[in-house]
Amino acid sequence: MSTQPSKTLETFPNPFPDRDYTIHMTIPEFTCLCPKTGQPDFATITLDFVPDQLCVELKSLKTYMWSFREEGGFHEAMTNGILNDLVAAISPRFMRVTGEWNVRGGIYTNVVVEHRQPGWTPAPKIDLP
C-alpha cells in the first residue's frame, strides 16, 4: 500500500488571506479504539474554520485522520486533540471541530470544541429576506 497513516498535516498558502470565508469539511469515516474495551469507535468529524495564512491539504488530512484507527482515547480527548493539532498546523482565525460519535453503551455523544485567534471577531451575520 503506497499511502500510510501519518500525524503530519501539510499546509498550503490561503489563496485569499485578506477575506474571511468558511471552509466546511465532513469526515464521515473516523475510527479509533475505545480506551476501556479496545473495541472500535466510529464518528463523523466535522471541521468548520476561517483560515488565516494557511489551509490544510486534504490528502494529509485524510492520512492524519486514518492515524487514529489503532489509537485509544475518550471522545472528549480525541475531539480536543484534533482541534489542537489543526490549530498548531494552520493557526486559523476560527475553528470548530465537532465529533458526532456513534452509540456506545446506548448513548450517543457529540463533542464540540472551538478555537478563536486572539482579537478576531466574526463579521455580523446577514439575513437576507
UniProtKB/TrEMBL annotation:
One of its GO terms (biological process) is tRNA queuosine(34) biosynthetic process. It is an enzyme of class 1 (oxidoreductase). Its main location: cytoplasm. GO terms for cellular component: cytoplasm. Pathway: tRNA modification; tRNA-queuosine biosynthesis. It catalyses: 7-aminomethyl-7-carbaguanine + 2 NADP(+) = 7-cyano-7-carbaguanine + 2 NADPH + 3 H(+). Substrate binds at V56, E57, L58, H75, E76. It comes from the Bacteria. Its EC number is 1.7.1.13. It holds the Pfam family QueF. Keywords: Cytoplasm, NADP, Oxidoreductase, Queuosine biosynthesis. The active site is at C34, D41. InterPro entries: GTP-CH-I_C/QueF (IPR043133), NADPH_dep_7-cyano-7-deazaG_red (IPR050084), QueF (IPR029500), QueF_type1 (IPR016856). One of its GO terms (molecular function) is preQ1 synthase activity. It is found in: Cytoplasm. PANTHER family: NADPH-DEPENDENT 7-CYANO-7-DEAZAGUANINE REDUCTASE. Belongs to the GTP cyclohydrolase I family. QueF type 1 subfamily. NCBIfam families: QueF-II. Catalyzes the NADPH-dependent reduction of 7-cyano-7-deazaguanine (preQ0) to 7-aminomethyl-7-deazaguanine (preQ1). This is NADPH-dependent 7-cyano-7-deazaguanine reductase. It comes from Halothiobacillus neapolitanus (strain ATCC 23641 / DSM 15147 / CIP 104769 / NCIMB 8539 / c2). The gene is queF.
